[in-house]
Each structure stands twice: as structure tokens, then as C-alpha cells.
Amino acid sequence: MEEQDKTRWFGISALVCVVLMVIATFADLAISNTVIDYGSWFGTFFQTFGEFPVYFVYIISGEIAMTYAWRKKARPLFAGSLALGGFVLTAWQTKQYVNEEGSYIAAIQSNLKNGKPIGMANSDSAAGALPVAANITVTLILLVVISILVQLWLAKKSDAQIAQLMLVAVFATATAWFASQANATLKQDWGRVRPYELNKAQSDFTSWLHPNGITGHKSFPSGHTMAATLAIVLSWFATGKARQRWFVFGILWGALVGLSRVRIGAHFFSDVTFSFFLTALIIYIFAELITYLINKREAILQ
């Protein structure tokens, strides 16, 4: 994309963000009171499965590190260290993903058993978990399946392509980590009560413009929306039309997860809007950095 096009799209995105945040400033509570449905299957589905992109960014990056290490086996100390690190990252994030899914699945089962709305869940602490044996089994199966699929994809790549993917993996991991840390820090410092945590009179509602400090509440900004919007980063690993499709998918997935969080009563409209555009900004900055480094690397090789 030409620089002029980037500038135009950046300006349009910034304008949309400002307009939506202004609307949220005055209508946050009214929007939530209108659309909340704790029994929403739409909200429950994206609450359960919406966060996969942040885990997959790490998992794919770990797989790429292992492949790059194998092709650099002539340097055993470096290759061994990188391969171990890549495996630990992949295995750890696979386990974290299964833990996340297990928690929400257990919450669904508990809600159905106790006659509660299906989408009721505690977003700030584990509401339950899969049995240990089931957790380990699912983790191992998922790890093996993902590793096979990713390695089959990487096997078709040349050494030069793997080297470039290794650079992408480093920046993709940094992007996911930075976005997660920024989101977690703001959550803690803003201390905003979630819609489902409001008292009966809703007197504890606060505007997104009002940081409350550390209160234990973590509504602003939305972690699910951040994790979902990182699907855009998955486009970095693709080329051609596949890259474009993953990019569009990332935008749509982030938006759908954001809307689902408002529907299920886990976040206000401002929480998901701010999270979406903040994550997109972080992705843009790292994308520009990696594009610069790749272009510089190609110029040196020529």
C-alpha cells in the first residue's frame, strides 16, 4: 500500500474512532441496558472462542523458530537454544489456550446445570476448568495437530522465506506481548466496573473518561477485543490474496468479538471500541517497523 493510501486510511480510522468514542461517552450505559442478554448464544460463542488469535500468534511464531533452528543446525548451540525456546513457547501457549477454553466451557456447563443464563461468566477469574486428564489430553492432541499442519506449511518454504518468517515471528510476538501488556495495565489502572457488576441502582457506573485506580474491576479496555483484533497479525505470515483475506478476517473478527462482549454484558461500548483501535494502532506501528527492516534486509542482500 502506498504511503498516501496509508495516510488516508489512518485518518479515516482515527475519525471513526473519535466519533464512536464520543457516542460511547454519552450512551455507554444506555447501550448496555438496551442490548445485554446473558443468555445470548452469539455472545457466549465469541466469549468462549474469540480470543484464539493472540495464542495462535505465539504458537505459529514458536513453530517458525523451531523450523529456523533446524535449518541452522550447523550452529548447534544457537539452533538448540532457539529450538527449545520455540517449543516451550508453542507448548505453553497451547496449554494457556486450552485453559482459557476449558474455563469458559466449564462455566457454560455450570450455568446450564444451575439454570443460569448460558453466558454468565466471571471474566476476571477462572469460573472453572476441565478435569486435569481431559486438559492434558486436549492440550497434547491440539499441540500435535497444530505442529503437523504448520510444519507441513513451512516445509514448502525456502531458506530465505524461513529467514524472513523468523523476522516476522519476532515482531508478531512482540506485537502480541505489547498489546497484551498495554491492555492489562489500562485495565488495572482504570478500575472500571463491568456492566454485569453494576449494583441494582447502577450508581457505580463511571465514564471511560474517569480512571478509578486499582479497584479490582477490569472493564476498560476489553481484553477479548484486543486478543481477537490480533488476528490481523496472522496476515503477516501469509502472502498474496491469503494475506488480504487474513487481514479482512482480523478486522471482522475483532469487531464481532467486541460487539459480542457488549451483548453478553462483559463490557461497555467504549471498552471494546477503545481496545479495537488501540490494538490496531499497535499493530500498525509494528507492521511499519517490520516492513522497514524487511526492505532494508532485501536491499542489503541485493
TrEMBL record:
PANTHER family reported for this sequence: AT30094P (PTHR14969:SF13), SPHINGOSINE-1-PHOSPHATE PHOSPHOHYDROLASE (PTHR14969)
UniProt KW keywords: Membrane, Transmembrane, Transmembrane helix
Domain of life of the native organism: Bacteria
Keyword Ribosomal protein (UniProt): no
Residue stretches making up the Phosphatidic acid phosphatase type 2/haloperoxidase domain: 169-287
SMART domains linked to this entry: acidPPc (SM00014)
Keyword Transmembrane helix in annotation: yes
Pfam families per UniProt: PAP2
Protein name (record): Phosphatase PAP2 family protein
InterPro entries, A to Z: PAP2/HPO, PAP2/HPO_sf
Residue intervals passing through the bilayer: 12-32, 52-70, 77-94, 132-155, 162-180, 220-239, 246-266, 272-294
